[in-house]
């Protein structure tokens, strides 16, 4: 397995000996070093300490504390111009997951030198966060029951927040979301005789404004809901065919998982009604499903203590966020919390082609995690 950290960060040692061998990188994981992406199932993950040697297991009774980072990149061509730019055309780390991974690798180096006094630490290097499949796959893997964390922690860098400051709160920090694909099927016809077919054109034109209208409330409201149309297609780029098939894609967002079920039902009812009015068959499927990320009070308390002891400024501004994070599913199995680490007020935004993770966040993130672990485990 190739190294998962950039050499310019001074983390040239690999952590292959700390990984249980059947788990590997997933295919959307180009790094800023050369590596050979593999095609892996969504539940492939790297779990340091999850092998027969258990290098971060104290051997004494105590809680299991999991720290998680993401591995995957994005289908974006990097334009940062830095020396360590992605070498894979059209794929790059424009969300900073390589930096998050380096933070956990630094943590692993420290625990490799000094184990916790009690309990154990697990470092979870998780693929497929961007699609919402990674955390769910990890938790569904039978091996996860052997980890059984009591606490789970994660972080994400956040441009727009002063460098090195933390954003943290109890409760919801990231929205639930899912991608909805609406498939409308009528009958194709020659463009000279469109009346012999059944066109989805009017149905698409009605869905485009009416789906977003299903949203309600402001983001501060518990019943907040948002529908964003992200894609629509009908037929092919030709002049001789009146198409009989169309798709409309939309992203649904809510603050709470229960509200998501209501919004999905409303969107399906609307599409079904419009399809019937135009004599169309309609089908639905769903992609990139994220549950809401909810920070547990006990986990937040441990992070707040670590931040105070390390002298790191914090606040609750910008939280919760509309964006989604699949870390939320770890909260179904452990007391979990995620914090957001400021990358700078004028730093390029996440998912922008000129973004580059600021390396100076690595020691800040690792010391917060280390202090949290030492407070829990000694």
Largest sheet: 7 strands, mixed
What count of helical segments does DSSP give?
A: 7
Percent in helix = 10-25%
Spans of 5+ residues with little confidence (pLDDT < 50)?
A: 1-43, 49-53
What is the tally of beta strands?
Answer: 15
**Strand order within the widest sheet?**
1-3-2-4-15-5-14
In the CATH hierarchy, what is the architecture of the largest domain at level 2? Answer: 3-Layer(aba) Sandwich
- CATH class category of the largest domain: Alpha Beta
Return Rg in Å: 23 Å
Number of domains: 2
Q: Determine the strand fraction and express it as a percent band.
A: 15-25%
Cα shape? elongated
The fourth-level CATH homologous superfamily of the largest domain is Zn peptidases
Run of helices and strands: EEHEHHEEEEEHEEEHEEHEEH
Q: What key attributes describe this structure?
A:
single chain; 378 residues; alpha/beta; Aminopeptidase; Alpha-Beta Plaits; 4-stranded antiparallel β-sheet; 15 strands; disordered N terminus
What are the SSEs and their pairings?
Elements: E1 46-48, E2 64-70, H1 97-113, E3 120-126, H2 134-140, H3 144-147, E4 151-159, E5 166-167, E6 171-174, E7 176-185, E8 189-190, H4 201-210, E9 225-234, E10 241-242, E11 245-254, H5 257-277, E12 281-290, E13 293-295, H6 297-310, E14 314-315, E15 335-344, H7 361-377
Parallel strand pairs: 2-3, 2-4, 4-15, 5-14
Antiparallel strand pairs: 1-3, 5-15, 6-13, 7-11, 7-12, 8-10, 9-11
Helix pairs in contact: 1-7, 4-5, 6-7
